[in-house]
């Protein structure tokens, strides 16, 4: 058993209102004591208990590690040409996923794992300490199962997304593909996953298909989450709330009824907003202010993927949310930490309180507000994951 005291913290974000001021539980001139992989104590530096080792934060801000609750990191290939064309006037559609499917199927396990690890390391250096990631670029029984097996070696938050699009192999038989996703593919993938997801959208899966896929996943012990209302108005959000999904992700095109449903389900279904996708596709921004004012629970995540949001930077997403989605810096930071934890139904991450996992990010700045105030600047200067210095 070993302890480390991080002292002389200019501003500590705990996300625990019982520990400090306001919803962020802010403590000025603070300290954190880490015991093995857990937070043992938080409070004023002057009251910190003794520890085996000490780290001087030199007046900088310390925050919980970011919780990225939506990413697609098991893939191969490059879609630079598609991005370049889109920035020259071609709009995004779900069809681009097929390019990555072909490259992913052709890649070896070692190539897929090396690419995953590279992106995880990249995100960690930017302060992300919890990663959710999905399958969805294999779309065969063997390729979906191997994607999840590779992902499960690196994170406990693994999502089965066989229902990303209808496999090109079943272009003329979408019903047959739904049968595969809910049958043989689900049986092969469920042992490696915690979650089941579906892209409920025109060009992917309609409401009835999505219901069948999520219901089958739940029967196999997986918890639903939904790609909902990204490209158009549709049934995704209502379906997520009805089925008690942990999150409805994207939430770009919402009716008043959708907003009301998410507000009523604030304790169950999180509205996860993914501004990297809107930035990278020049699409309409999600209206975070509308959701927050209605009482919905909001999370921010990267949606890191090779087609529509090729960023692993949670600080970048915070800056976008503040600039273009109506969030305050405090709300955006909470959404990128505690909000992501809610979307993963976790209470041990996204918060710095006794008993929580010791996932922390030190900023080269006096306040968390600098994450939005200084967009694009690499402000994360140190990262601890499970109590171990990781970056």
Helicity level, as a percent range? 25-40%
Q: Mind telling me the C-alpha Rg? A: 20 Å
Largest sheet composition: 8 strands, mixed
Shape assignment: globular
DSSP helical segment count: 14
**What structural category arises from helix and sheet content?**
alpha/beta
Which parts are unreliable, with pLDDT below 50 for 5 consecutive residues or more?
Answer: none
Q: Proportion of β residues?
A: 15-25%
- Could you tell me the number of beta strands? 16
Distance between the termini: 22 Å
Report on this model:
- 34% of the residues lie in helices and 22% in strands.
- The protein is built from 14 helices and 16 strands.
- The radius of gyration is 20 Å and the shape is globular.
- The protein is of the alpha/beta class.
- Strand 15 (380-385) and strand 16 form a beta hairpin.
- The protein starts with a strand and ends with a strand.
- It has helices at residues 80-86, 97-106, 109-125, 141-152, 174-182, 184-189, 207-219, 236-242, 256-264, 275-281, 288-294, 314-324, 329-343, 370-373, and strands at residues 3-12, 27-35, 38-44, 53-56, 61-64, 66-68, 128-134, 157-163, 195-200, 223-228, 247-250, 270-273, 298-300, 360-363, 380-385, 388-389.
- Strands 1, 2, 3, 4, 5, 14, 15 and 16 form an 8-stranded mixed beta sheet that branches. The chain has an 8-stranded parallel beta sheet with strand order 6-7-8-9-10-11-12-13.
């Amino acid at each position: 058993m070993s302890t480390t005291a991080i002292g002389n913290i200019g501003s500590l974000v705990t996300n625990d209102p019982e520990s400090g001021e306001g919803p962020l539980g802010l403590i000025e001139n603070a300290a954190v004591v880490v015991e093995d992989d857990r937070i043992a104590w938080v409070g004023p530096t002057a009251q910190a208990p003794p520890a085996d080792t000490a780290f001087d934060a030199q007046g900088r801000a310390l925050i919980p590690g970011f919780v990225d609750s939506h990413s697609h990191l098991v893939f191969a290939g490059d879609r630079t040409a598609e991005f370049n064309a889109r920035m020259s006037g071609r709009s995004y559609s779900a069809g681009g996923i097929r390019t990555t499917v072909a490259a992913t199927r052709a890649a070896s396990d070692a190539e897929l794992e090396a690419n995953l690890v590279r992106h995880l390391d990249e995100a960690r250096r930017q302060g992300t300490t919890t990663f959710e990631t999905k399958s969805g670029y294999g779309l065969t029984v063997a390729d979906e199962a191997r994607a999840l097996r590779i992902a499960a070696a690196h994170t406990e938050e693994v999502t089965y997304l066989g229902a990303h699009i209808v496999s090109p192999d079943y272009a003329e038989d979408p019903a047959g593909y739904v049968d595969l996703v809910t049958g043989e593919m689900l049986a092969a993938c469920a042992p490696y996953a915690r979650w089941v997801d579906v892209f409920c959208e025109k060009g992917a899966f309609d409401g009835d298909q999505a219901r069948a896929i999520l219901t089958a996943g739940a029967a196999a012990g997986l918890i639903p989450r939904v790609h909902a209302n990204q490209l158009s108005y549709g049934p995704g959000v209502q379906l997520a709330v009805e089925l008690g999904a942990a999150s409805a992700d994207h939430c770009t095109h919402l009716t008043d009824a959708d907003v009301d449903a998410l507000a009523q389900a604030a304790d169950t279904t999180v509205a996860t907003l993914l501004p990297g996708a809107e930035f990278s596709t020049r699409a309409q921004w999600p209206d975070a202010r509308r959701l927050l004012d209605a009482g919905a629970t909001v999370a921010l995540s990267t949606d890191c993927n090779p087609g529509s949001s090729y960023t692993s930077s949670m600080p970048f997403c915070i800056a976008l949310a503040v600039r273009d989605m109506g969030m305050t810096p405090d709300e955006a930071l909470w959404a990128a930490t505690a909000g992501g934890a809610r979307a993963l139904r976790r209470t041990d991450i996204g918060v710095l309180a006794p008993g929580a996992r010791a996932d922390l990010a030190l900023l080269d700045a006096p306040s968390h507000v600098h994450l939005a105030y200084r967009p694009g600047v690499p402000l994360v200067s140190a990262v601890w994951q499970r109590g171990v210095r990781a970056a």
